[in-house]
């Protein structure tokens, strides 16, 4: 894992006028942890 | 309607947001509004088939940037003010069943980056004096949606608890010349009995004066005023310490532990908080045992005096063993 993940930030406006921001990262999470099925 | 009303007996604002009565309450999994919008599926809050981390304005905000001016009838002892602020929802993952504890350390590290981004952007708004990052987890805390998410309230005032903490820290600074939190952390490390996780840059411990049996605080070793002031190695270590603590919490009673997680850091009110504000995260799990909850009842709610059934030294030992047991 790198110390500084490269963050990408995309800002959009929803149909009702509220904003939504999509964050994505080039480094950081590669592996997927198992889900806690008892949480739902 | 978003409105603030001043309580002159306690000297604090109370926020009213009447539209929140209609907010979504524990929908079935197939109608989770925080899931991505799957092809052919119902439209959720996120109009994409998958996502990494998402932040959006809360549909049922306690504060809004365009709250109307309060008109007439509120002055003197009981003034009112617009509930002006920002409320955001932070989606940690598009996996409905994950939790912060089950997520890879790398995802938590990315989340730290997002929290810092939101602190900076929201704190720069002229009407925002305090950026409060928090998570309510579990039905015992009153969550209305199970999808892994946290929230951010950008308040138009410094809220009472952080304010009281900052005032105590300022007094300590004036009397001793030291940061209160640095001195507390030094004391905890010196004693050692309540330390739960020791990282290179962060330490998790049950404070000497814990208000909840398994309350834990995560302190930066360096006197960084806010999450924004953390450097890259510190952000990485924060993710590591959080992961260990959270896995330990889940290992404590053998189920995904409910908690409130809150961040305390420097206000964004333009004041000088160096050496006074010290970034840290506080966790308040409501469980005192696997099947019994600690309620905020008469003494806690009416008198503000917490009564706790177990000593922090004992719960810290149990929690430390849960962390170590999970790591084996």
Short description:
The complex is a heterodimer of chains A (about 40) and B (about 325). By secondary structure, chain A is mostly beta strands.
Task: Give the helix/strand layout.
The complex is a heterodimer of chains A (40) and B (328).
Chain A: E1 7-13, E2 19-25
Antiparallel strand pairs in A: 1-2
Chain B: E1 2-7, E2 12-17, E3 53-57, E4 80-82, E5 86-91, H1 105-123, E6 130-137, E7 149-155, H2 160-176, H3 180-191, E8 195-198, E9 202-205, E10 216-220, H4 232-253, E11 259-264, E12 280-284, H5 298-303, H6 312-327
Antiparallel strand pairs in B: 1-2, 1-4, 3-5, 5-7, 6-7, 6-11, 8-9, 9-10, 10-12, 11-12
Helix pairs in contact in B: 1-4, 4-6
Write a structural description:
The complex is a heterodimer of chains A (40) and B (328). Chain A is mainly beta. Chain A has a domain of 27 residues. Chain A is 0% helix and 35% strand. Chain A contains no helices and 2 strands. The radius of gyration of chain A is 15 Å and the shape is rod-shaped. The model of chain B has no long low-confidence stretch (mean pLDDT 94). Chain B has 6 helices and 12 strands. The relative contact order of chain B is 0.13. In chain B, 28% of the residues lie in helices and 20% in strands. By secondary structure, chain B is an alpha+beta fold. Chain B has one domain: HIT-like (HIT family, subunit A), CATH 3.30.428.10. Chain B is globular, with a radius of gyration of 20 Å. The chains are: A mainly beta (40), B alpha+beta (328). Chains A and B meet through strand 2 of A and strand 3, helix 1 and helix 4 of B. Strand 2 of chain A pairs antiparallel with strand 3 of chain B.
């Amino acid at each position: 894992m790198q110390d500084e993940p490269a963050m990408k930030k995309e800002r959009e406006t929803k149909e009702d006028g509220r904003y939504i921001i999509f964050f994505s990262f080039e480094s950081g999470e590669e592996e997927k942890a198992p889900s806690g099925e008892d949480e739902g | 309607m978003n409105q603030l009303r001043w309580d002159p007996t306690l000297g604090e604002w109370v926020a009213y947001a009447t539209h929140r009565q209609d907010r979504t309450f524990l929908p079935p999994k197939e109608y989770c509004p925080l899931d991505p919008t799957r092809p052919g599926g119902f439209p959720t809050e996120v109009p994409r088939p998958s996502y990494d981390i998402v932040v959006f304005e809360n549909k049922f905000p306690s504060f809004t940037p365009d709250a109307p001016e309060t008109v007439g009838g509120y002055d003197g002892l009981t003034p009112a003010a617009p509930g002006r602020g920002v409320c955001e929802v932070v989606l940690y993952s598009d996996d409905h069943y994950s939790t912060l504890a089950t997520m890879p350390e790398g995802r938590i590290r990315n989340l730290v980056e997002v929290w810092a981004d939101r602190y900076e952007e929201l704190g720069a708004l002229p009407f925002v004096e305090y950026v409060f990052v928090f998570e309510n987890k579990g039905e015992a805390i009153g969550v209305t949606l199970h999808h892994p998410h946290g929230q951010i309230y950008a308040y138009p005032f410094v809220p009472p608890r952080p304010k009281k903490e900052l005032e105590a820290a300022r007094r300590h600074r004036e009397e001793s010349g030291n940061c209160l939190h640095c001195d507390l952390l030094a004391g905890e490390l010196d004693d050692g009995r309540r330390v739960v996780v020791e990282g290179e840059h962060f330490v998790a411990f049950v404070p000497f004066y814990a208000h909840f049996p398994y309350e834990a605080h995560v302190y930066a070793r360096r006197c960084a005023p806010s999450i924004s002031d953390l450097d890259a190695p510190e952000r990485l270590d924060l993710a590591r310490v959080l992961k260990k603590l959270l896995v330990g919490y889940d290992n404590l009673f053998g189920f995904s532990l409910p908690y409130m997680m809150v961040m305390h850091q420097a206000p964004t009110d333009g004041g000088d908080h160096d050496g006074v504000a010290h970034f840290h995260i506080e966790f308040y799990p409501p469980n005192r045992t696997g099947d019994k909850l600690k309620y905020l009842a008469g003494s806690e709610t009416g008198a503000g005096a917490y009564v706790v059934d177990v000593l922090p030294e004992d719960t810290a030992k149990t929690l430390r063993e849960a962390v170590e047991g999970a790591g084996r």
